[in-house]
Specification:
mainly alpha, about 0% strand
């Protein structure tokens, strides 16, 4: 048994020596690189030599694929014969976007949709404090002239709003 242990130890020693010898031989095989600019100190390393770049190939076809238009996915309805992917040429952009919209035509369109110009829903700038002061003033029987004018001014601000129509 002792002989087997000694033989194994000798094999391990031989393998370690062989490994050390091979490492030393490999490290000696590395040639030293020639410095590009030997006058500069080697602080951060030497720059790599510049390789010539090949000329890029020009593309023959466009790689941008035009998406197919599915009429079922569109929000608006359009005629199937209509070309919806038409682009306006650069020369005509100023003409297209500089024209003022026809306001009369737009007003007629809004009227067809049933939207009227009434401003019942718009805020008139009346605060909660003003509303509460009007409520207090209207509950009093005898008002001074200044109090009447204040109440009238606030109620006139409310006139034409949804709140005023609800209070009537």
């Amino acid at each position: 048994m002792e002989i087997v242990i000694v033989i194994c130890l000798l094999i391990v020693i031989v393998l370690l020596l062989q490994d050390k010898i091979v490492i030393h031989k490999r490290s000696k095989q590395k040639p030293k690189k020639e410095k590009v600019n030997p006058h500069l100190p080697d602080i951060m390393g030497q720059p790599k030599p510049v390789r010539s770049l090949s000329v890029p190939n020009t593309a023959n076809e466009s790689q941008i694929a035009e998406p197919e238009i599915n009429p079922d996915n569109l929000d608006i309805e359009y005629d199937e014969n209509e070309n919806v992917s038409i682009q306006i040429p650069q020369e005509e952009l100023d003409e297209v976007f500089s024209n003022m919209p026809d306001l009369e035509e737009e007003e007629e369109e809004w009227n067809r949709y049933g939207i009227f110009g009434g401003d019942n829903g718009f805020a008139k700038g009346v605060t909660y404090d003003e509303l509460s002061s009007v409520g207090v003033l209207l509950q009093k029987e005898n008002l001074e002239q200044a109090q009447k004018e204040t109440a009238v001014a606030i109620v006139q601000k409310l006139q034409g709003t949804e709140l005023f129509s609800l209070l009537e």
